[in-house]
Amino acid sequence: MSLRIAITRALPDAERTASAIRARGGEPVIAPLLSIEARAFDTNLDGVQALLFTSAAGVRAFAEASGERARPVLCVGDATAETARAGGFLDVRSADGDAQALAALAAQSLDPRAGKLLHVSGADIASDMIGPLRAAGFSAERRIAYEAAAAASLPPAFGGPLDVVLFYSARAARTFVALDAPGAGALTAGCMSPNVAKAAEPERWKRVIIASSPREDALLAAIFPA
Asked: Structure pTM?
């Protein structure tokens, strides 16, 4: 019998995850605990040499607000980079990791003398990008382009049979805990990182699986071992 897996991340990223789960023989259940809401932000890029994105939502928010596509774009991982390429950005680089890896990629591939780095993000972030970039000698700024609003109640999908609940962010995990979903003790929590697992409160679950690296393919590989 195939695993029924609840995807708590926001749309449209949840749809991509659903396709990946089907490809592995699982049964996805889209149950977003967050929804993306755009915010107005300063799109002036004078003096900016490169854009940094820690989420696909950030890429989409920037692309909707600005026609700039030529500046280098540095992305936290491959999925975010794919979103940037699909959005028409011409010079896209992936750190294939986390925020720390993204800061390292910037330090290795960019010149502090060439201009400011701009981190386009959501209101809630897991890691500070500006401090490490400034420590590496860069001028850096963060602009908030969207916020992830937490669900006020559990999606209806949580009323049906499930085996696994996926958490891609600590914010989603905290939202689940705050809504006090019943029956978690019989389920497995699939978490993108140790920080996400901590936010999900491991004692609530039958089992907690943590991805070996902060990538969706690593998380799904842990849930569907060969």
From this structure: 0.93
User: CA-to-CA distance for 206 and 75, rounded, in angstroms?
Assistant: 34
Q: Is the pLDDT of residue 226 over 80?
A: no
For 106, the domain range is: 37-148
User: Are residues 133 and 42 part of one domain?
Assistant: yes
Please tell me whether the peptide bond between 225 and the residue prior to it is cis, using omega within 30 degrees of 0.
no
Structure tokens at 205: 């679950």
Residues 70 and 45 sit within 8 Å (Cβ to Cβ)? no
Q: Using the 3D structure, point to which of 132, 148, 164 is the last residue of a domain.
A: 148
For residue 104, what is the domain's CATH number? 3.40.50.10090
Burial call 188-209: b when 16+ CB within 10 Å, e when fewer: bbbbbbebbbebbeeeebeebb
Single-letter residue type at 84: A
% of the chain at pLDDT higher than 90: 94
- How many Å is the Cα radius of gyration of the chain? 18
Tens digit of each residue's pLDDT (9 = 90 or more) over 36-76:
999 999 999 999 999 999 999 999 999 999 999 999 999 99
In the DSSP assignment, the letter for residue 10 is P
* pLDDT beyond 90 at 126: no
Pairing relationship of beta strands 164-167 and 92-94 according to DSSP bridges = unpaired
User: 3-state class of 155 per DSSP?
Assistant: coil
Query: Strand 34-38's sheet: what is its strand order?
Result: 34-38, 140-150, 116-122, 48-53, 73-75, 92-94
